[in-house]
Request: fold
Amino acid sequence: VSIFPSNQTIFINHNFSFQILVIPDQNTSGMQTNVNYNDSIINIHNVSDGGLFQNNVFFYPGLQNKSRIQNIFSVILGQNSITELGILANVTGKAINEYTSYINLTNTIISTPEGIAIQNIVSNGSISVIYHYEDVTKDDKINIFDLMTVSRKMGVCTCIEDVNRDGVVNIFDLMMVSRAMT
Reply:
């Protein structure tokens, strides 16, 4: 069971998505898990059925409780089972603060058709949230104010205004900001 993609870098105030990917090695008829994350860095807005068990299932998107979505589960209704890889859930949200939020799966249980737990290995993930380097004013807009801020620091410092991170604020940084302006 793994988070896919396992590691993402997202700009602040942008949307993201990831899937809970399952690769069963024997007949499987149900699964549950919790998703833990840092709610001061990302917000999760939606959890939807990924189609792991295809048709005729009962899917529950979990209960959101601050920095956890608890008891996401899907179970096949009837006698069927699957052995193919698939997606338990699609998860979407928005990046709200700069830093890294780990995406950890806990209480992950996979069941055989007989109701016996299958041993599993979990691979967690992360979402790193960054500002656009060109947004030196950090107002979520790249505009003339960023250009003016960089121009005032030309040749003066190696700081946030060093957009291309080459150790000096110069015309290259101005060019990067001007090309990214909205």
About this structure: The mean pLDDT is 93. The chain has two helices and twelve strands.
